[in-house]
Amino acid sequence: EPSPHLPAPEDVEIYSYNFHSLLRWSPVPVETGSVLYTVHYKTGAFPVWNEMNCTRIPRTQCGFPPAIQKRRWTIVLRVRAELGPLPSAWVLTGPFVAERNTTLGPPEVKAVSASSDSLLLSVTPPFKPEPGDSFQYRVFYWENTTSTTRKSFQEAHKTLLQIGKLKESTLYCFSLRVEFEGVFGDLLGQQSAPECHRTAI
């Protein structure tokens, strides 16, 4: 029976970045004693509450265990505070699907090699691709002059991307992002910080 004297956790939210997800909440203030927290989960396919690896924990966040780090599963979580034998009421999250609700970070540019008319970028995606993943890179590039004309193109998920038809001995800047095509629609990733390189002579 939830205690009317122990408030339930507030600001309960699922934070998900590059398909790694965790539940977090604000600490419950009490005058004496230390508050512990318990988190349960259930899935859309099997709607029974299960313990996560977070039972009576002092911290105010709980990472998803590998068993439910599934991109297309619907997950619902609940958390409560506990002070000695007294539990608070449960607080439930809304349904969460990683492939619909995660934030994708920018791709990482590992290396850039310049020729007289092109830049060759060696890149890795922000997440570990799974079989059947469909995503592409959107590359934005521009000549580093007073003109701000930007061009862009898309490239399927390769590890080498070429920006071609460039002028020689000219400074070009570029930025890229991942566009992930999932069953629930497209996810647009965050754009990388601009990087500038000069083409060769």
From TrEMBL:
One Pfam family name is Tissue_fac
Q: Which GO terms describe its molecular function?
A: cytokine receptor activity
Q: Which PROSITE patterns match?
A: FN3
Q: Which InterPro entries match?
A: FN3_dom, FN3_sf, Ig-like_fold, Interferon/interleukin_rcp_dom, Type-II_Cytokine-TF_Rcpt
A GO CC annotation given for this chain: plasma membrane
Which parts of the sequence belong to the Fibronectin type-III domain? Answer: 105-201
Q: Could you tell me what this protein is called?
A: INGR2 protein
Please spell out the taxonomic lineage of the organism that makes this protein. Eukaryota, Metazoa, Chordata, Craniata, Vertebrata
What is this protein's gene name?
Ifngr2
